[in-house]
From TrEMBL:
UniProt xrefs under InterPro entries: SBP_5, SBP_5_dom
A GO biological process held by the record: peptide transport
Origin organism lineage: Bacteria, Bacillati, Actinomycetota, Actinomycetes, Mycobacteriales
Signal peptide span: 1-27
Protein name: Solute-binding protein family 5 domain-containing protein
Organism expressing this protein natively: Mycobacterium asiaticum
SUPFAM superfamilies in UniProt: Periplasmic binding protein-like II
Amino acid sequence: MATRCRWRNAVLATGLTVALGASTVTACSNSAADQINYVVDGGLSTYNVNTVIGAASAGAQAFARTLTGFGYHGPDGQVVADHDFGTISVVGGAPLVLDYQIADNAVYSDGKPVTCDDVVLAWAAQSGRYAGFDAATQAGYVDIANIECTPGQKKARVSFIPDRGVVDYNQLFTATSMMPSHVISDILGTDITTALLTNKVSVVEQVARVWNSTWELKPGLDLKRFPSSGPYKIDRVLDGGAVVLVANDRWWGAKAITKRVTVWPQGGDIQDRVNNRKVDVVDVATGSSGALATPDNYQSADSPSNGIQQLIFASQGPLAAPSARHAFALCTPRDVIARDAGVAIANSRLSPATEDALSAGDGVVESAQFNKADPNAARAALGGVALTVRIGYRSPNARLATTVGSIAAACAPAGITVTNVTLDTSGPQALRDGKIDVLLASTGGAAGSGSTGSSSMDAYALHSGNGNNLSGYANPQVDGIISALAVSADPAERVRLLAEGAPVLWGDMPTLPLYRQQRTLLTSKKMFAVGRNPTRWGAGWNMDRWALMR
């Protein structure tokens, strides 16, 4: 018992990395349960969390230790090198050249080796260079000039465009970013790496189609197409969308402590499941499940995420014009919404939670008129024209239902009728399909945090042509600012860039930031090694170190 207590105290004090967890769990492993139930934000629609829909889903929370990479996001959102997977060496600085070396014993759960082909596919899909890929973001990958990879080998040399030395290059090729390229090669019956590197258009089109659609999660899926490169692998998908993960016997690193983790999409029954001790870890947006009570045998902690809860406007419909968006923003009670969430109003679009010191003056002046609801100003801006606006969000979510109610009440006197549209599918898809006029979600349209942990990377959600630029916003000046932020580590230059971008974005109003999304992590008191995470990977970042003591 003393050992168990010391272990738990160490977890709480340090945030426990994967490597540390492997060395401290031994004394307790004999009494660990075989099964853990884990509840996450949103749905689990695809294994490929790099598509627009996948990035907005809860897939990253589920698969951080199923699809590994050269790094993972730790408890403070920082990227931690994953030496089990491989190493990165800086070969040159001007231009930036990196060597990625995959571990010799790295192998997928189907026995196929992890190779540089997977690096090439990840780059090709997310670089914006090849048509057809429905990638969520091009951030960082767009700045890679070329990749040297001999198909089937373990080493890739990645060269960046001159003067495009991405500061946060460690965000690239991390956990969940690389899909098993051999699955696509087997489906198409061809060497896709050579086709991608030589831009053989007819094959690239087929690769994009397969990359977009092959990894949908549904009951009865063909497990041959879902191999794992981590300590867990997919066992099956249950009716209702839960995904069962089991220990991967081909994983070459420290073995997972718990043999089976069932990942459940957030539903309206969380409180009942907690009361009945049918769930062990809950990692969701604060307030999304209402006033989630914490029984005596559980513990709960709230913490800020790096994602910004926001209104994302559709590129068509009643709010397509900036003037209509301005009017809608004028009657939106941002102060009330933030107060109900127990946090301050968020104003920055390009430098969210990870850079508070830099963003202190980012948009404060321009945003002042939009802090409190002013229905008279909104009505005047519309010229007396009535509007009906459909706001959608993934349900159930008590917090967002209240938010829509607050907006509806405040905007009614302005002649704006707000309707509440609850979604059981992807918010980004509903916005694309014209089923809603506004998506109420976090960064990139996510139900959860949605953040990469890097403001520079997150800013690409407003870069033209980016997949998670859900409002279809395009402004060359803002594109230039976002591009410059990606390669600048100078605080003074970053402040200047943010100050330059703020008035443009408040004028164009592609989105309306509300507040920094808060997270609630509720766990059984018998759970060990579970830690917060402000990024889209959530608490699942070290799932293989979790233990439920019986």
